[in-house]
Amino acid sequence: MKNQGKKAYFVSDIHLGAPALKNNKERELAFVSWLNEIKEDASHLFLMGDIFDFWFEYKTVVPRGFTRTLGKIAEIADSGVEVHFFTGNHDVWVFDYLPNELGMILHRDEFKTEILGKKFFLAHGDGLDSTDKGYLFLKKVFTSKTLQWMFARIHPNFSLSLGHRWSKHSRISKGVTGEEFKGTTNEGMFIFAESILRQEKIDYFIFGHRHVMIDSPIGENSRYINLGDWIQYFSFGVFDGNEFKLKQYNYQGPRGH
Questions:
Q1: What three-state secondary structure class fits 206?
Q2: CA end-to-end span of the chain, whole Å?
Q3: pLDDT digits (tens, 9 = 90+) for 5-21
Q4: How far is Cα 95 from Cα 112, in angstroms, rounded to an integer?
Q5: pTM
Q6: Domains assigned to the chain
Q7: What is the pLDDT of residues 131-143, one digit of tens each?
Q8: What residues have CB less than 8 Å from 41, skipping those under 6 apart?
Q9: What b/e sequence results for 199-224 when a residue is b if at least 16 CB atoms lie within 10 Å of its CB, and e otherwise?
């Protein structure tokens, strides 16, 4: 970490612009308020996937909306904070616009880094559960360069409408805003983390994707963290160099659908 007294922040699954939710504006205002609060003592900001409920970039066209969020992230990056963006299953089609325009570091795969002597393994988490064959197939389809090229040939008015229509079939549209931790012997991402620990020492595994708040011991001296979401929990993680804490933002606005 660059400066003593600074902190690393972690957040995932904001799902900005989710068509199944009616409080998108309030949730974005809350997220921007949180970003504004953490910018003073942040050295790192890790946006751990599904920040947007749907995103697709053409070469000269980007989705409308999210102006406050994008402006605040750019401001934070411009101030010298290291901002990392992990593509999730909802915003897998982020390409070069956000990194170039906002100054973010883009990650499409798992990322290992060291912060003040502690080793972190970071990923959105989708695709890490080897038992989820259906999703693994879908991820292969959506990361296909051929499919991306074909989708980019469609007029934005139609393609973005298609994307939002697809998003409406997600678990959020079915009222599933939070899930339950399946236990250390059944949770695919936890089992994946255990397999990494057998190969190397990791102090903290940080994931999103599952929409659960979990801070669990794993192995002898490591921790498994799932960051929750900003639909039900308004949660985030923070590491101050000594300990990692999973917290909830004190947002008093509407949280319903």
A1: strand
A2: 39
A3: 899 999 999 999 988 88
A4: 21
A5: 0.84
A6: 7-248 (3.60.21.10)
A7: 665 555 556 656 6
A8: 5, 6, 7
A9: eeebbbbbbbbbbbbbebebbeebbb
